[in-house]
């Protein structure tokens, strides 16, 4: 199942932006390498008990930030409360995320079609929030070859994924050029997971 909650957090833009500024003082955005040997065009960081990283060897959830060599910043209550209430709204009552991946897209950033398969328990949902510029989200099938459907993700939209739809291919085709009053030239995505 999946559920798109339009404008679920659109009144939280300023608070979210301020929280990200605090988090990135300790765990700055970085462009990670992939096992395929190029750098991602999306800048990423994490907060919570685990952070997601990519390098030449693979993809992992880790307790410490390899850049700072410190634990990831803790997940702000604002983040956790939003994620839990969106999950509830979609019918997942026991969601307890231990990781929030923070993705920052510029107007040239893309995220190619992929599955999220680095988590331990695929029965747990994934909750994601979009802020700032609009992203054109591609939602494919359980196989890479299924032609994806496009969704326009706007400031404050929440998306909850679980059950059968948890393993569908997805990506961000492009960002719609604009100027967001809070996030400027960027799209921010917060993705909450139970990683471990
Ligand atoms: C559908 N992020 O971080 S969020 C990712 O907007 C990721 O930055 C995109 O894909 C972004 O892995 C898309 C929406 C999303 C997240 C996880 C999913 C959609 C999903 C897992 C399964 C199916
Ligand atoms: Fe993903």
Bound ligand species: N-(carboxycarbonyl)-S-(naphthalen-2-ylmethyl)-L-cysteine, fe (iii) ion
End-to-end separation in angstroms reads 22 Å
Mean pLDDT: 98
The SS-based structural class is alpha+beta
Q: What is the N-to-C order of secondary-structure elements (H for helix, E for strand)?
A: EHEEEHEEEEEEEE
Number-wise, the strands total 12
Biggest beta sheet attributes: 6 strands, antiparallel
Radius of gyration: 15 Å
The amount of helix comes to 10-25%
Topology:
Elements: E1 2-5, H1 13-26, E2 43-48, E3 51-55, E4 58-62, H2 77-89, E5 99-105, E6 111-114, E7 126-132, E8 135-139, E9 149-153, E10 158-161, E11 170-175, E12 187-193
Antiparallel strand pairs: 1-10, 2-5, 3-4, 5-12, 6-11, 7-10, 7-12, 8-9, 8-11
Question: Quick recap of the structure?
Answer:
The chain has 196 residues and is an alpha+beta fold. The chain has helices spanning 13-26, 77-89; strands at 2-5, 43-48, 51-55, 58-62, 99-105, 111-114, 126-132, 135-139, 149-153, 158-161, 170-175, 187-193. The protein is globular and about 40 Å long.
Explain what this protein looks like in three dimensions.
- The chain has 196 residues and is an alpha+beta fold.
- It has two helices and twelve strands, in the order βαβββαββββββββ.
- It has helices at 13-26, 77-89, and strands at residues 2-5, 43-48, 51-55, 58-62, 99-105, 111-114, 126-132, 135-139, 149-153, 158-161, 170-175, 187-193.
- The chain has a six-stranded antiparallel beta sheet, with helices on one face. Strands 6-11-8-9 form a four-stranded antiparallel beta sheet, with no helix packed on it.
- A hairpin with a 2-residue loop joins β3 and β4.
- Bound molecules: N-(carboxycarbonyl)-S-(naphthalen-2-ylmethyl)-L-cysteine and fe (iii) ion.
- The site of N-(carboxycarbonyl)-S-(naphthalen-2-ylmethyl)-L-cysteine has 16 residues, from β5, β7, β10, β11 and β12.
- Fe (iii) ion binds at residues 114, 116, 170.
């Amino acid at each position: 199942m999946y559920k798109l909650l339009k404008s679920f957090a659109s009144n939280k833009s300023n608070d979210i932006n301020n929280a990200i500024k605090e988090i990135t003082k300790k765990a700055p955005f970085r462009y990670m390498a992939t096992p395929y040997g190029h750098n991602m065009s999306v800048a990423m960081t994490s907060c919570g008990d685990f952070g997601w990283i990519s390098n030449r060897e693979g993809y992992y959830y880790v307790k410490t930030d390899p850049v700072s060599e410190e634990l990831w910043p803790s997940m702000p209550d604002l983040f956790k409360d939003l994620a839990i209430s969106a999950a509830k709204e979609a019918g997942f009552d026991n969601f307890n995320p231990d990781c929030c991946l923070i993705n920052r897209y510029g107007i040239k950033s893309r995220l190619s079609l992929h599955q999220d398969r680095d988590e331990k328990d695929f029965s747990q949902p994934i909750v994601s929030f979009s802020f700032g510029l609009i992203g054109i989200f591609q939602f494919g099938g359980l196989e890479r070859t299924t032609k994806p459907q496009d969704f326009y993700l706007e400031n404050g939209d929440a998306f909850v994924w679980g059950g059968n739809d948890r393993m569908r291919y997805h990506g961000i085709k492009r960002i719609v050029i604009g100027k967001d009053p809070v996030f400027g030239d960027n799209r921010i995505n917060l993705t909450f997971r139970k990683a471990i």
